[in-house]
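Box 3.1. Reading complex inputs
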Amino acid sequence: DVKVTQSSRYLVKRTGEKVFLECVQDMDHENMFWYRQDPGLGLRLIYFSYDVKMKEKGDIPEGYSVSREKKERFSLILESASTNQTSMYLCASSLLGTASNTEAFFGQGTRLTVV
Amino acid sequence: AQRVTQPEKLLSVFKGAPVELKCNYSYSGSPELFWYVQYSRQRLQLLLRHISRESIKGFTADLNKGETSFHLKKPFAQEEDSAMYYCALGGSNYKLTFGKGTLLTVNP
């Protein structure tokens, strides 16, 4: 069974803290993505990676960074958490290929609250 | 730029009625279009993709490159179709972009 696992379902952090969100996939996928999901705004891409140590900015990278040291793990880092980063964060992974096989598989999400 | 537009935030229909969820895209290359669905308290999951030209759970979607659209249709809505639907666009740069989503409610 395909699995994308995010380390926490719920997280509460204080303003200014450094926050790490972890995502692990067991499907040997090349692509990994981080999105935030907000009501009325849909899914917005923060960062993505198509290979180990490779990263590309998405549409809203400000205030975030990522790390991909191993193929199966993609970490999202909030350098100094702010209240406007309170959101649901979704990790996804997919094969590097054509449209016929590039289905993205999603994690269960991490609901982050910054107080 | 790679962009997906879903003009309707909310869509409410009665059971048995036809439903159409609209999606328009903007992309200079050859697009890969998908529909994803999120049922209550479940993970986001793929519903269908344009390349397969398949019908899943009675839903179909046709890619219209002239109108840059990929609307999702079902002739007879069921209550279990109530969910959030997202249109997504994949590009040759491996980026996967989603629209803002349409919340479909099928009333009994």
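In summary: The longest strand of chain A covers residues 31-38.
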